[in-house]
Amino acid sequence: MTREDEIFEQLKSGNRDAVEELVQLYYGEILVYCRYHVPDPGMAEDAVQETFLKVFRYLDRYRHKGKFRAFLYQVAANTCVDLCRKARDNTLLPEIPCWDKGLDEEEEKEDFLLLLSCLPDDLREIVFLRFSQELKLREIGQVLNLPLRTVQSRLRKALKLLEKEMEERRWNMNE
């Protein structure tokens, strides 16, 4: 039984403190996800809070089947879209998320996000969810409402495009 399953068992038995533990379990990764999709850090914080409010508002209707993480990402994605739409600010590039790691790792994250910018939106989202957020392919399919095979083929396509882009950058650096 995973920690998430244990928390949902506590929620079923009426332990409301488990809600806080559920937030703590996923807050950081949902914040990184929202920072990637929303241009302003304050707006990203709002998106995270709104995500959890939406989820907990309807938690009594949610039937836990071990897919809560994917469900949470789906709500976060929709919330980010809604906030950007309200702000009418879809043209700004997202800021580089702040990871609580060392400088070298942060530079790697910046390089990763820069490299992602060469991909079309649908492929970029899959690569970001897979390698930055470490979601499983099945979870990505649930978040994006895509069949597993589609996620697999788009990920393969994205990785080929990224490989080509990296080769071009290496070639340009050697000139």
Automatic annotation (TrEMBL):
It comes from the Bacteria. Keywords: DNA-binding, Sigma factor, Transcription, Transcription regulation. Residues 22-88 form the RNA polymerase sigma-70 region domain. Pfam families: Sigma70_r2 (PF04542), Sigma70_r4_2 (PF08281). Gene3D superfamilies: 1.10.1740.10, Winged helix-like DNA-binding domain superfamily/Winged helix DNA-binding domain. Transmembrane segments: none annotated. The keyword Cell membrane does not apply. Belongs to the sigma-70 factor family. ECF subfamily. This is Uncharacterized protein. It comes from Claveliimonas bilis.
